[in-house]
UniProtKB/TrEMBL annotation:
GO terms for molecular function: glutathione transferase activity. Residues 4-83 form the GST N-terminal domain. Its EC number is 2.5.1.18. Residues 89-216 form the GST C-terminal domain. GO terms for biological process: glutathione metabolic process; toxin catabolic process. This is glutathione transferase. The keyword Transferase applies.
Length: 230
């Protein structure tokens, strides 16, 4: 398919932007990646997502689709000839959606809370919450993978994309804070899964380098901690 027919509006550090890019790569769909600048919103973005005014946005045949997980589901349905992302079984599909929502609504705010923490005690509390969430996801991995290499079984699926998009930020957070979030002792399944996920050809080209992401994170951290303007 002509890449002019498929566009992704986003920014390279965003885990949410990674999701549609990985899904399109898995489906072997050629697309154009349009970078949004830090702290600015293009006219195309504002026109494409007038409600939330945020990335990512998938533009397919000049029609915009917003919200990362909705975009991934859309990609799965439209390019149905490629590998399927959502489980075929209705229960398994519901479980995958449940854990994807948990990651976005409950777990990711804790990860972001580490960077926003103003004191040592608050930071340590956020780190513990992230670790507790990863233990829960370890249990989810055991059930969803059914002994295979991915949440989706033998291949990367919807929940792999939902969780795996945060691996770059997990590594950057570990580096910046001198902690180990993905622990071989407590989450051995996730540790092995993370290595397989990041080594996959659909993921490698869009997964940010840890050093580059850590540098970007320092800029964000300074903004979080800057005093509000008078």
């Amino acid at each position: 398919m002509d890449s002019s027919d498929v566009k992704v509006l986003g920014a390279w550090p965003s885990p949410f932007v990674m999701r549609p890019r990985i899904a399109l790569n898995i489906k072997s769909v050629t697309y154009e990646f349009l970078q949004e600048g830090l702290g600015s919103k293009s006219e195309l973005l504002l026109q494409s997502n007038p409600v939330h005014k945020k990335i990512p946005v998938l533009i397919h045949a000049q029609k915009p689709i917003c919200e990362s997980l909705i975009i991934v589901q859309y990609i799965d349905e439209v390019w149905s000839s490629g590998p399927t992302l959502l489980p075929s079984d209705p229960y398994d599909r519901a479980v995958a959606r449940f854990w994807a929502a948990y990651v976005d609504d409950k777990w990711f705010p804790c990860l972001r809370g580490i960077a926003k923490a103003q004191g040592k005690e608050t930071r340590e509390e956020a780190i513990e919450q992230v670790k507790e969430g990863l233990v829960l996801l370890e249990g989810a991995f055991e059930k969803c993978s059914k002994g295979k290499g991915y949440f989706g079984g033998e291949k990367i699926g919807y929940l792999d994309i939902a969780v795996g998009s945060f691996l770059g930020w997990i590594r950057a957070t570990e580096k910046m804070n001198g902690v180990k979030l993905l622990d071989e002792a407590k989450t051995p399944g996730l540790v092995g899964w993370a290595e397989r996920f990041c080594a996959n050809s659909a993921v490698k080209e869009v997964m940010p380098e840890t050093e580059k992401l850590a540098e970007f994170a320092k800029i964000l951290q300074a903004k979080f901690k800057a005093p509000p303007p008078n």
